[in-house]
Specification:
The chain is mainly beta and 196 residues long. 13% of the residues lie in helices and 32% in strands. Strand 5 and strand 6 form a beta hairpin. The chain starts with a helix and ends with a strand.
Length: 196
């Protein structure tokens, strides 16, 4: 009789618990007897979103690539290496950390007519960007152009931590006028990494 009463009390307690327990609550297990045990399950999940970390040049700073062609370089359309950059000699480090299937790198200039000095211009196409191999992975640089924006696409096979570098040179192209203004011709390019 006492056993039946005890079972009724346990049943009543369980009924009350289930009445107040919503479907979102954790599992419940009750063990009785001399070697009682209770086991429940708990699920875990870590959700990772697509991510992109992108850097060109010095971390936390804005680099300037400078070219100093002489008159012979301008007359002969010689290739002139850049100066400065975080790696020196007109070269910058490029780092990309991403888990997306592929990356589009876009180069957008802020002066579509070219680098400007007092109303005179040097075409963006006069500056060539070349990837320097030997790093960790590869990112093809987009061309610089007066058209405004150009893109390059780099396929990625799973999460990637790429560290490479780009080098810049200047050449007065055949048919381009020799710059007439003394002083610095300036312009800025924004590099953007995005998913397709």
């Amino acid at each position: 009789m006492k056993t039946n009463a005890k079972m009724m009390v346990i049943g009543l307690v369980l009924a009350i618990v289930f009445c107040y327990a919503g479907p979102g609550l954790a599992e419940t297990s009750i063990g009785t007897g001399a070697a009682a045990s209770a086991a429940v399950n708990l699920n875990f999940q870590v959700s990772i979103q697509n991510y992109i970390e992108f850097r060109v040049g010095t971390d936390g700073s804005l680099d300037t690539i400078n070219f100093s062609p002489g008159i012979d370089d301008l007359n002969n359309s010689s290739v002139v290496a850049g100066e400065n950059g975080d790696l020196g000699s007109g070269r910058v480090s490029v780092r990309l950390l991403s888990n997306t299937p592929s990356i589009i790198i876009t180069a957008t200039n802020n002066t579509p007519s070219g680098l400007v000095n007092n109303g005179d211009f040097i075409d963006w196409e006069s500056i060539t960007t070349t990837e320097v191999t030997g790093g960790q992975g590869s990112i093809a640089p987009p061309l610089l152009t007066n058209a405004g924006s150009t893109t390059s696409t780099t396929p990625l096979n799973g999460a990637q931590n790429i560290l490479t570098s780009w080098a810049y040179t200047y050449t007065r192209r055949a048919g381009d006028p020799i710059p007439t203004e003394d002083g610095a011709y300036t312009g800025q390019v924004t590099y953007t990494a995005s998913t397709p």
